[in-house]
Amino acid sequence: MPASDPSRRAAECRGPSRRRLLTAGLAGFGGLTLADLLRADAGPVALGRSVIHVHLDGGPPQMDTIDMKPDGPAEVRGEFSAIATAVPGIRVCELLPGIARLADRFAFLRAVVGSAGHHDAYQCQSGYEPEYLKSQGGWPAFGSVLSKLAGRAGDAAPPFVDCQQGRGMVRNSARPGFLGAAHGPFRPDIANLFARPLEPGMVGELAARGSDFATSLSLSPSLSVDRLGSRRALLNSLDGWKRRVETAGPIGADRFHDQAIGILTSGRVAAALDLASESPEVLARYRMTTPELPPFETADGPRAVLKFLLARRLVEAGVRCVSISLSDFDTHAGNYPRMRQLLPILDAGLSGLVADLESRGMLDDVLVVVWGEFGRTPKINKDGGRDHWPAVSPALLVGGGIRGGRVLGETDRWAGAPLGGAVTFKDVTATAWHLLGVDPQATTLTDVTGRPHPLVDRGRVLTELL
Q: Is the confidence at residue 59, as pLDDT, over 50?
């Protein structure tokens, strides 16, 4: 799409300038440079679609979102009403009117099972339990596998960008596993765009990890891209690169150095992160229509609607897998007031994204997967909250070739156990690979011992949604 006229930038979305975002030095991944992250065998697979993972950080309540139980016990059905959608027979929470309006585009998964019960996004990112091949670093995230299969030297955008905040960032959910840091995500620090205060415990976790949670883009303070007259000058200026360059040989000898510089100098990632460059007309798609409620201490605020726009911009810039998150669904207390604050953000962001992709002719080319690490307890606890419930959780699929207007799975009157149509994390992951044109059983990865593994060992493609 052509760039918008800068004079039309929306003041309310003013973010960092392109110059600030392009000022760049790489301090992430324990001293590894971006070139190290890109240095890997380029795979032979040409993928036909992109994927956006939306993690509902903390675990969303199924009975307060897409699996309403209006006829269930009072302590289960809760305070929210179910509303009709564009598809007869499908009803969702009253706080999701945008999704209701576009229900014929969505597949509603009401019985996702097999959660390992871990409080991060790893299982959503990979399809696998955290313990699988743990001695080798674990199974790699979807985007890391995609990087291995389809990453190319010369790409002007990284194949995998992780913009998760909260638990997903702190616990390194989008980790490359046994593929190694070369296939880790490009992880820009978006804290200056979207505030997400961390719980005290997570602050400590993040500090203990050091600087490897993000791929920082910043040159030495005295330098700017405008002052650098050559690619060699850029490379030699990047913090932490000079020693690597001296031992790696002349510039150009390593195609992955060229790709690293290409990412930084092409401006694609930086431009995608500059939300102020969007026109007011596009920004209007990502606008809440309900009164904005103040966020809880560890929750995203109303501005988080624009995370969905950020994901679209990154995909349009050439990124093949983008992860974002919306926090905080860990509602051990105050479930209903927190849902009143969070669900309108999810609704505006997701419905805005779908409408935006559709208007650009991109909806069939981008698969959007929305889910959390588990569901919530059917009964409200003494603090007005819902606790962890790994037995069943909800998910949404839209775009990427998915047949919308369908419900898959059914739960009991308590929304606590599947009655039929249950799917697993691996089933969803297998379906995503299938939609990208990759056979999830026939395509293999080789672990550090030389043993091959199918991309998804026991998942099935959800053909009823295709």
A: yes
Task: Give the containing element (helix H, strand E) for 338.
Answer: helix 335-359
User: Read out DSSP for 377-445?
Assistant: -SS--TTB---EETT-EEEEEEETT---SEEE-EE-TTSSSEEE--EEHHHHHHHHHHHTT--TTT-EE
Return phi, psi of residue 278, to 5°: -75, 150
**In 231-334, where does DSSP find H-type helix?**
231-237, 242-248, 255-266, 268-273, 280-283, 306-316
- By C-alpha distance, which of 252, 253, 34, 65 is closest to 159? 34
| CA triple 266-147-368, angle to 5 deg | 90
As beta bridge partners, residue 393 has 112
pLDDT of residue 266: 61
Note the pLDDT of residue 424. Answer: 98
Domain ranges of the chain: 44-209+280-465
The tokens describing 21, both together, are 């975002």
Q: Residue 162 pairs with which residues in a beta bridge?
A: 323
Cis peptide before 254 (omega within 30 of 0): no
pLDDT digits (tens, 9 = 90+) for 410-442: 999 999 999 999 999 999 999 999 999 999 999
Rg (CA), the chain: 22
Task: Report residue 117 as tokens.
Answer: 């019960």
Question: What type of residue is 381?
Answer: N
Residue for token pair 């001695």: 135
At 33 the three-state DSSP class reads coil
Angle at alpha carbon of residue 130, lines to 126 and 132, rounded to 5°: 90
Q: Given the structure tokens 């991309």, which residue do they identify?
A: 455
Q: Are strands 418-420 and 366-371 parallel, antiparallel or unpaired?
A: unpaired
What is the C-alpha to C-alpha distance for residues 431 and 450, in angstroms, rounded to an integer?
A: 26
pLDDT digits (tens, 9 = 90+) for 221-254: 343 444 444 444 554 544 333 333 344 344 333 4
- CATH tag for 44-209+280-465 (out of 3.40.50.12780, 3.40.140.10, 3.40.720.10, 2.60.40.1120): 3.40.720.10
**3 state SS of 76:** helix
pTM for this prediction = 0.84
- The helix/strand/coil state of 310 is helix
